[in-house]
Structure formats: C-alpha cells, structure tokens
Amino acid sequence: MKKSALPDPFEQARLEKGVGHMDDQNDPVTMVLGLKDVRKCAHKWQTFQSGAKPGRIVVPSEVAIRETRQIPFEVDPPEHKGFRDLLDPWFKRPLEPEYQDKLATIIHAVVEEALNADEVEVVEEFSLRLQSRALTLLLNIPYEEAQTWISWGTHVFRSEGESLDGDKAAILYDYIDAQIDKAAENPGDDLYSVLLNSEVNGKKLSKEEVKGVMILTFAGGRDTVINAVTNSVAYFAEHPESLQRIHDEPEIVNTAVEELIRYFAPLTHMGRVATEDTAVCEHAVKADTRISLCWASANRDEKTFPNPNEVVLDRKVNPHVSFGFGTHNCLGATHARQIMHTLVKTLAEKVKSIEIVDHQDNVEVLGEFNRKVGFHALNVKFTAK
C-alpha cells in the first residue's frame, strides 16, 4: 500500500449498521457514518446541540482542560447567527486579491525553503510553518508572531502519546489572554481589537467571548491544515503524474483541491449532544449522550461517491463534508481552501519531484476503528523543476 493512502476503516460498519461506537473518557459516543445521516443530524441542531458544556462536543472531549466556550462553534441558533454575521466577513477576506497575493508570497517562501534544503520533515518544517505564517494573515498581525506558534510544536493540547494535556493547553490560553489585554490597551486593526470593539445581538463582546473566538481560530485550523498539507505532499510524492497534470491543466486546480480535502478528511469527526431521547439509523440515542458526525466516513460513502477510495482529481460531483455541514460549517473554510489552492498551484509550478525518505504514521484509535489521519513525521526530498 502506498504511504499516502488513507484506507476507509468505517466501510463495513457504515454498510451494515450505519453507526459505530467508541468510549471517550467514560463519555460514550455513537458515531454516525453515512453521508445522508451525517448531514441530517448536522441539520437537526435542536436535537443534536453544539451548545452543550464547553469542550464536550469535541472528540476527544476537552471538558477536563477548558471552561471557555469556543465561539461560534459551541453556540446554537438563534444566538449563533449574531456571531456568524460578525465573523463571516472577516473570515471571507481570503477571497480578496490582496489577501491572496500576500498568502502566495508566504507559501512561495515555504516551498523555496523546502527546495533549498537537502531534506525536509514535512509536518514540523513545512506544514506547521506554512499554517502558522498564513495564520498571521488571517489575524492581521505581524508575520514574526508565527515563530511563537511554531515553537509550540504541532500539538497544542497534547503531549506525544497522550490524548490531552492541560498544561500544554494552558500555554495557548495564557497567550490569548495576554494578547487580548494588549489589544484592549493599544487597539489596532488585528482580529483581537476588532472583536473587542464589536457588538453581537446588541451587546459588546466580553473578554471571555473574544477568547472563545480566538481559541477556536487557533485550535480549529491547526491540526486540520497541517494534516491536509502533509497528506497532499505525500500524495504528490507518490503520484508525480498528478502534479504534472495539474501543471498542464490549471483549470482543474479547484476540483483537485476539493478532492484532496474529501479524500484526506483532515478532521475525522465532531460531536453533538442529544437534547432528547431519539434514534440514529434505528439505534437508540438517549438524551444527554453524544453522537459524532463522522466526516471521514461520510466522505467515502459509496452511495454518493463513485470510486470513493481513489483520488479523482477532476471529480465532477463532490458534496464532501470535510468542512462540516449546516449551521456549524467551518468558519475557516475559505482560508483553508485558499491555502490549499495556492499550495497545489505552487507545487505544480515549482516542483519536479518529491521523494519520501521515511515516515511515521499518525493513527487515531476510535473504539472499534483505527484511522490513519496523517503522519507524525514525514521526511522528504524536494527537487526543483
């Protein structure tokens, strides 16, 4: 099997039962596996809520390491709309040509660094750098600040081999508190300052609400972008013909990006908490228990995607759910798509070949399922055109 391949561990359970089961810190989760069912449950926010106890809808649960509610991720309608109306214009800025030019400069620099190195460890030295530097643009803060985030390493909430680490999480929370205080004293045109001076539903945002937005912005786009970028590099290493095809047919860049995001599904799943006794795929779900919307399984649903376990760069119909679905679709999707679009285009223009030297898989253990989500380490050699 190719190193870039991500098998579908959910296929049998999806076909036979429609659900899977896992225990998460003694708070069991019913995993919803089919695309149609995932979308239906995501749509029914009254029955499957996001606004539960802070941290509980994340799998693994973060209840033990945070009390701050991530906004708008852990807020349900009607309050949710006020926050989205405020945040959407800011997070749609990657559609502006000036933003895209600045992002291209950042990504070109990361690719050039890789081309000039003898060998690159993609997770830490390529993907983390790219993600962190691009985030300075999203937050509208100095580029140099990326070095601080890079110094944290890839896992802000975890130590190697552990599911959660409150001490590591505190580094991020303390950092955000300090940045909010700084912006309160000396407002600028960065996201912290904009939020501190904004109102939602007729009320000024509190520091705790600003912190909730910022924690989501840092945490939500970190591992996901790193996984998407690293997996794509591995894929192009083993499929140089795909990189050449994108170079020769630049008009397929958008469909290629959507397909890579579908196939690699950078985030496996996201939880919800049932507000009443209900059922999913004829399986009983009790009030105040959790389900998860398994994006990675839904993206391989054979009822929707022909050849679901293959990367089809020009896939015509691609209703993947890698960025979620419904009310709580991903706030950072525009930024993530623009990163991937620019990266894929840049690799096709500048890179002749990528050779994998060695690798260490990152496998998630999810109850009855083991899913390769990406890599802990991926050492490669880039060769320029």
UniProtKB/TrEMBL annotation:
PROSITE patterns referenced in this protein's UniProt entry, alphabetically: CYTOCHROME_P450
A molecular function (GO) term: heme binding
InterPro entries from the UniProt entry: Cyt_P450, Cyt_P450_B, Cyt_P450_CS, Cyt_P450_sf
Superkingdom in the source lineage: Bacteria
Alphabetical keyword list: Heme, Iron, Metal-binding, Monooxygenase, Oxidoreductase
S-adenosyl-L-methionine as UniProt keyword: no
Pfam family, one: p450
Keyword Iron: yes
Matches recorded under PANTHER family: P450, PUTATIVE (EUROFUNG)-RELATED
Family: Belongs to the cytochrome P450 family.
Protein name: Cytochrome P450
Native source species: Saccharobesus litoralis
